[in-house]
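sanity check this record:

:::
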Amino acid sequence: MSVTKKKLFLSWIPLAIMWIVMASEQPMITSFISRLPDATNQLAAFGYSFALALFIEGPVVQMLSAGTAITKSVSSYKKILKVMNILAIITLAVHLLFCIPLLFNYTAEKVFNLPEKLIDSAYWCFVLMIPWSPTIGYRRLWQGIMIKHNRSKFVPIVMYIRITLAFFILFIGLRYLNIRGALLGGLTLSLGVISGMISAFIFAKPILDNLPQSDSENLNLKQMIHFYMPLAITSWITLGVRPLLNLGITKGLYPIESLAIWPVILAYLFLFTSIGQSLQEIIIAEYKKENIKTIKSFVNNVSISLTLLFIFIYFFKPILNLWFVDVSKLPQELLKYLPISLALLVFLPFISARIAFFRATFVSIRETKSITIGVFINVATLLISIIVLPIYIKVAGVYIASLSYVLSYLFESIFLFLRVNRLDKIKNIF
């Protein structure tokens, strides 16, 4: 039976809510940091540590897609769980390695040009985030299982639990604790992801208890690793973009101000792009040749709507001010960088949704190497942009980051579009 747009919408909405709730966590944290002393420096320190933690987390991010695509049986679940266990050990070891003060300080100061006065706060924020990568990986795997087995309605509940705990911690920190903003941010993120992992397992456990022992595909462990590794590399490279952007920011004008406002802009942007990204798992779950036209039309509707909403809010200043002034509580000296930065990023919601569509297609046909190549193009574009642009354009670092960011995703989307149309497995479908 072919899928309908109504079914796609009803299946997708819980995932979109999950991503929106998840995307709201960082803006909530930065809004509390903005209300604490030394807001600009603490925002910049938090932004750096968060970006570094995301870089290390990269290999586990695609566990959501893997859980959706692979976990048909106990046998397949145990194999992807083994992959996750290996990645948990690796990412935890890397995080602990960067917790060595000498290495952290050298990387922050010499590689990413982080101003010296931010390093101490950034370091302790990073130390508090030690549980970050493993807990996220397991949580995403178990959420993928929920999606695969038609329990997507439970997926956002996990995020409600996480965001509620995060708010409680932030409130206590703001009212009763004498703690630097960056450290409060790191503590909040860690406790939040731990609660998310535990609650995801609780909701996934009944599904795991009733899985069949084997399935027709029955990939062995080697095949499972071969399937997942391109996805892991993809996310690792994608999330590595954020520290690289910090490098570009520090080479532009007004580096501290740009470092402070960039995570706030990214968090706002993520509210839009995350909705597009949430399409990926639903496409994987419903992927069949006869469904492609309906899925394409649905993705087009979502991507265009997101872009129009972004443009509307850009010109409707009361909503924009509500977010950045009242909610995010940005210091006045940072607000002047918003108009140009947001204008440069205006088409990213559309591009992001299209990329999710292409990636879901490649995951569904087990052609994950194409996704990795696309991400290499993304990062190559980003690297060239952050190196070349500051040489020829003397503007604030946040403008360099915004332009580099959108160009990198644009070139990736072009490659994936061309690649989809050339593959024999899916030729003429698009």
